[in-house]
Specification:
single chain; 358 residues; alpha/beta; pyruvate-formate lyase- activating enzyme; 5-stranded mixed sheet
Length: 358
């Protein structure tokens, strides 16, 4: 070995691609196998050699491996539950959309800050629903109620459906449905790059696909189990070339030492990586980091070594619509974050639209 070899002459580090999610165990709820999608998922589970069993309800699942609550939590996030969506009343999804359309619940990622830490409780299984036709029928009713207004549906409020598409095919069904709806639109956001199954789908520009992006520090420290920034941006280029309306969510925006450089670099890298041809109708959404006391307690239990700053003394209280105070940055910091990142967005993407900062 030549010890004088320069760094530039050394072989580049090989980075393995982020693999699609494969659960360690699967459960099927009553009625799931009465639907073609349920049967198809069962065959996929069998082909992967994944252990599985029937269960009367996801609430009755017991016996997952793990001696501590933390181990059980991690194993729960590796467990797939296939069921029928019984509640077809959709929740509101402001400011992203009018309604959340429920096709899956739970996420395989381990983002320290995620609100799903608390909303999904102690057993955050990955749940997918097989009665897509029923869900789309309910969506059609919501669309009809608001005509001639456009009704937008957010498909990623309680999950990251792109990370499950290879199992469910649900996004393809939703995109195809919305393509034919004059007054219906679909939106979803993802931290995963596995978009190839969606590139051939006829969408008529009625589905906006957004990618969650952030400063390198935030992705490295707080988003384990997700696709790397470079993978997400490569996928965004594919989506743009397939003609989909494209968007980006910068969330959560975190105040840390060097944040200006981090977010400036983020937008510079994004501009350099996207297709050179003009991108039409690109949107940005900005969401500052926030947490509740409940979230703080749960996050510190599940990720005891996290570097996520949740010092209540440094925050401003804001009343949340779910009956809890949440802690956001003080007004001065909010203003600095919003103004700086807004300037960076318009410097690199002068034709873009910023939907909101919250």
């Amino acid at each position: 070995m030549n010890l004088n070899t320069s760094l530039t002459e050394r072989p580049a580090k090989i980075v393995k691609p982020t693999k699609p999610f494969i659960p360690d165990f699967a459960y099927f709820e009553p009625g799931a196998l009465e639907y073609p999608k349920g049967e198809r998922i069962l065959k996929w589970v069998q082909s992967q050699g994944i252990p599985y069993k029937m269960t009367s309800s996801h609430n009755r699942i017991t016996g997952l491996p793990g001696e501590t609550d933390l181990e059980k939590y991690k194993n729960a996030k590796r467990t797939l539950v296939v069921g029928v969506r019984k509640t077809l009343t959709f929740d509101q999804s402001k400011p992203s959309a009018e309604y959340a359309i429920p096709i899956s619940t739970g996420c395989m990622g381990h983002c320290h800050y995620c609100y799903l830490q608390t909303t999904l409780g102690a057993k955050p299984y990955i749940r997918v629903y097989v009665n897509t036709e029923d869900i789309l029928g309910a969506a059609k009713n919501y669309i009809n109620e608001r005509i001639p207004e456009i009704t937008r549906f957010e498909a990623a409020c309680t999950s990251d459906p792109v990370g499950l598409e290879h199992i469910t095919g649900s996004l393809e069904e939703l995109i195809t449905f919305m393509a034919n709806e004059e007054y219906g639109r679909l939106r979803f956001v993802t931290k995963y790059h596995h978009v190839d199954p969606l590139l051939h789908v006829k969408h008529n520009g009625h589905t906006r696909i957004r990618f969650s992006i952030n400063a390198d520090y935030v992705i490295r420290q707080f988003e384990p189990g997700t696709s790397r920034f470079e993978e997400r941006i490569e996928a965004a280029g594919k989506i743009a070339r397939a003609g989909y309306p494209l968007g980006f969510i910068i969330a959560p925006i975190i105040w840390y030492e060097g944040w200006e450089d981090g977010y400036a670099s983020l937008l510079e890298r994004l501009a350099a990586a996207l297709p050179r041809e003009p991108l039409k109708d690109m949107t940005f959404e900005m969401i500052q980091h926030r947490f509740t006391k409940t979230a703080k307690r749960v996050i510190e239990q599940r990720y005891p070594k996290t570097k996520l700053d949740m010092d209540i003394a440094k925050r401003k209280m804001k009343w949340g619509r779910y009956g809890q105070y949440k802690y956001v940055y003080p007004d001065e910091q909010q203003t600095a974050l919003r103004e700086f990142i807004t300037e960076q967005i318009f410097e690199h993407f002068p034709a873009a639209t910023i939907d909101y900062f919250t």
